[in-house]
Design brief:
The protein is an alpha/beta fold. The chain folds into 2 domains: 267 residues, Aldehyde Dehydrogenase, Chain A, domain 1; 186 residues, Aldehyde Dehydrogenase, Chain A, domain 2, CATH 3.40.309.10. 40% of the residues lie in helices and 22% in strands. The chain contains 15 helices and 24 strands.
């Protein structure tokens, strides 16, 4: 099946198309239309017109809409999971998990919107005030532009579409070029639903030209973007006066205390560092280990890593498939080679065959090495020996990123300090920093972004408050 443009409810194929090649097999697995600035502007105009009816639609209709999509996702679970595997090489077991999470995200968005409400205000609480009937309500912002990445090509789309649509907005989606068919199949469920708000969702494809047209237009009120820091910076500078929500990069770290359960820590750190081939914004990249248990933990970490199955993403027991493209694999090997030249070493022999990059556990790294300082976005993790948490804390915080951190410890006072003093949007105790529940607020500080996702928090980002006073 080929992905097509959706100008609202109108599905359109174009003669100029581009092929999507499987990162595993190298075979063409889907095609997508090549869109232009004119396509983006047309989609925005349709969305602007549709936003009027979207605002007038009932909440009951919009909730039924999302629940209908969730039901159809369940029916098409295996097909959509395989499409994810085809397009981005995600192991099929994890692709199924992504579909299941997407179903939860869509369902939760409907359930959340049913209970969101305004609030009454006591205007006579101030001497300068007087007794009135005062309250506020939430209204849809209008038009939302959603731009999504390749690493979770279904669920990260859901985290934008579901809150935006259930809140009564119209949306123009520009999905990742790496997974056009995944986004198309998902969007089609919304557009073909019997409960759909007419023309409230449009889908266009493309890179810089299309993205620029979407973000610089005066039509959108909200830009919701997940991707790289450089692109996030461009959006911030060019969007104008709009609400901008950015979920950007990360350099997730954890601290392993001497009081920690080392078996638990090693197994969870291996998962957190190498799931999705390390192509996760909150992928574990830095592990700071108390000196007294460093060697023991390193041995356990190496053992856990060796047990991970690297291979065909179509096999149920495969843990790691390919990286997204040749450039990503070459860049990952460059990280490792550079670190080794600077004096680091790997507990496992660095190995890659094409896009298949085997996990690396690096030791003897220094804080000034690029492999520690920058986001690697690959299956590479670095172990750093530290004296204690006082030694680890400033080193963990010494990063331009602040998405999620974690600490493994059974020391209550250390836990309290970690929660208070680590500089990140999320702190996890006794698990990997890669842990995320879709119901939670999710987002970072510093260069990791602004705004929060998670249905309740995204709905807040995608609505406006209107204050009412009746004297």
């Amino acid at each position: 099946m080929n992905a097509k443009i959706f100008f609202g409810s109108v599905e359109l194929a174009k003669e100029n198309i581009t092929d999507r090649v499987s990162p595993y097999s190298g075979e063409v697995v889907s095609t997508a239309p090549v869109c232009t600035e004119a396509d983006a502007l047309k989609a925005l105009k349709i969305a602007k017109d549709a936003s009027v009816n979207a605002k007038k639609s009932t909440l009951a209709q919009r909730c039924d809409w999302l629940l209908d999509v969730a039901s159809k996702l369940k029916q098409n679970r295996e097909d959509i999971a395989k499409t994810i595997t085809d397009e981005v090489g995600k192991p099929i077991a994890f692709a199924r998990v992504e579909v299941d999470r997407c179903i939860e995200t869509v369902t939760l968005s409907a359930e959340t919107m049913r209970t969101m409400h305004g609030e009454t205000i006591n205007t006579d609480a101030m001497n300068s005030g007087k007794k009135t009937t005062s309250f506020f309500v939430r209204e849809p912002a209008g038009v939302v532009v959603a731009i999504t990445p390749f690493n979770f090509p279904l669920n990260l789309v859901a985290h934008k579409l579901a809150p935006a649509l259930v809140a009564g907005n119209a949306v123009v989606l520009k999905p990742t070029p790496e997974a056009p068919l995944t986004a198309y199949k998902f969007a089609k469920l919304f557009i073909e639903s019997e409960f759909a708000v007419k023309d409230a969702l449009s889908v266009v494809y493309g890179d810089a030209e299309v993205g620029s047209a979407l973000i610089t237009s005066d039509i959108p009120r909200v830009i919701s973007f997940t991707g790289s820091v450089p692109v996030g910076n461009i959006i911030t500078k060019n969007a104008g006066i709009k609400k901008v929500s950015l979920e950007l990069g990360g350099n997730a770290a954890t601290y392993i205390d001497k009081s920690a359960d080392l078996d638990l820590a090693a197994s969870r750190c291996a998962l957190g560092a190498f799931v999705n081939s390390g192509q996760v914004c909150i992928s574990l990249q830095r592990i700071y280990v108390h000196a007294s248990i460093y060697d023991e933990f390193a041995a356990k970490m190496a053992k856990e890593t060796k047990n991970l199955v690297v291979g065909s993403p179509y096999e149920d027991d495969t843990f790691m498939g390919p990286l997204i493209d040749d450039e990503a694999a070459q860049r990952a090997m460059g990280w490792v080679e550079s670190a080794i030249e600077e004096g680091a070493s790997s507990l496992l022999t660095p190995k890659h065959e094409g896009r298949m990059f085997h996990p690396c556990v690096m030791v003897d790294v220094r804080d000034d090495m690029a492999i520690v300082c920058e986001e690697v976005f690959a299956p590479i993790v670095s172990l750093v020996k530290v004296d204690d948490f006082d030694d680890a804390l400033p080193r963990m915080n010494n990063s331009p990123y602040g998405l999620q951190f974690s600490v493994f410890t059974n020391d209550l006072k250390l836990t309290q300090r970690a929660i208070s003093e680590l500089e990140a949007g999320g702190i996890v105790i006794n698990d990997m920093p890669t842990l995320r529940f879709d119901i939670q607020p999710y987002g970072g500080v510093k260069l990791s972004g602004v705004g929060r996702e998670g249905p309740k928090f995204a709905i807040e980002e995608m609505t406006e408050i209107k204050a009412i006073t009746i004297c």
